[in-house]
Specification:
This protein is mostly beta strands. 2% of the residues lie in helices and 56% in strands. It contains one helix and 40 strands. Strands 22, 23, 24, 25 and 26 form a five-stranded antiparallel beta sheet that branches. A four-stranded antiparallel beta sheet has the order 1-33-32-31, with no helix packed on it. Strands 2-3-4-5 form a four-stranded antiparallel beta sheet, with helices on one face. The protein is globular.
Amino acid sequence: MNKKFILLLAFALNTALLFSASPQLVWHQVYGSPQDSQQVFVSAIDNYDNMFLAGAVYFSNSGSLIINRYDGVGVLMWNRLYSNNPPAGTVDKAVALFPDDQAGVRVIAAINTNAVLTHFLYYDGSGTLQSDLAVGDTAAGNKTIPLTVITDGVSYYMLGQLNNVSSVFKCDYSGHILWSAPVNDNYNSQAGNISFDPFGNIVAAVYDSILPQVIIHRYNSNTGLELPGFNSHISSLPVNGNFIQMQVDPGSNVFMASTGTDSLGRTQLAVNKFDTSGNILWSTLCTSGKGHTNMLNSFVMDHNGDILISGPYTDNTDTLQYAGLYKVFNPTGGILWSFADSEFLVNSAVTVVDQFDNVYLGDTKTPSTISPNYSTFSFTRLTSDSGQVQWNRSFDNSSDNFGLMVQVNNFGDLFFATNTPTDSNTSWFAGRIGNNAGDSLGTSVQTIAPTLSLNVFPNPFSSETNISFTSSQAEQLSLTIFDISGQLVQQQQVQSVAGYNQLAVKAEFAPGLYLIQLEGKYDFAVQRVIIAP
């Protein structure tokens, strides 16, 4: 096995950190190595609360694809390095993750940025790579560069580059291109979005950086033929076309968000609504008069078809930043309510909506009283009808994070992932926050390689087992046992010595699966155990 891969496994913080603020389970993990940097690109959760992360681990001047799976209590079930020896100067970049119902995941990735091919990878629930299929043929010049990918469960639909032309592709799961249709002849088109309409047709929007303009097309998903009457060229909208997101409502109207300019020349979040013929029905600038933005982070639609849009804003004095969130009324484009979460420096403002239309805003920010290399994660839940805050909770991380991603499950639990730089490298930081834990967690996280090594024997056991571990220093440790639902069932303090330690632990409770966690000042170790009948 490649030595770097062994290091990655050794330095993965395979730990479940649980908070007692609510009955809901809360965990986080830092995944990284002092030798190499990791950067997470995409995340996804399945119906069983498994969380999948895909990104790149950088060896010298190249980056190889890596995929992690965490279970519902935050235990790292597996991680897989796609290539131990990527070509120099290249990065394998994951574009999309599609979990299945068997704890497996389909990964769409651009492999080798010098001679790009889109690869369809499938890892089963055990982390075994079952298939690796390439789309396109570099020998024939058919480079495929995916920007956005969606699936109907049978085929993939991609917006990307084919022979330097922005196109929509339909591919089966075997990697065969079933059809392709150009959305723009200009090879500089590098930003866009793709979506289904209620009839299964494909709607694609792409930004032309030379004209500049946004072009929207609608295609028949079976044939790839463009539907008549819908071809909209929008030249007045985006100041920065790198931020384009799109939604389609149940009436097949298309909503596109980007950045636009107000009457004072300031950049604001902008939303446009188009009918099925491509006519603009309304255009709205989301501004409260407080300042300007240069980034669109989230653009989602609730179950009523109303729009929620968010991004970081800067005030008119350019000294204070805040996370701006706006709700826009579908029929008229009027702003129903807005919310601002102020701080000294806001890096991300990401919005998700649960099945009950509760709105969640996640942001990373730097308080004005703390150094610029220090971030606070903040999560706010608001009512959809009025924007009233239901709760807010935050916790601290001693680094300046970037690239926040947030998902919500059917119970309103939030799953988040971001990138956490250290002095020399970058690690992944991910976790799950219980819906009802509406207070401040206030947990400091250090990206430090674990030095605790935990072993439990015998395992399974009935009433008593032995725990051995190695500690880098003499210190007081907390030994905690949780049941599989995250409930604390036993806790004790342990005084360790530097080096090898062993103690007997009695666990006289119901048979089943449990987690034993050993926690020091900076180190964590966790082990699954089974108590037999």
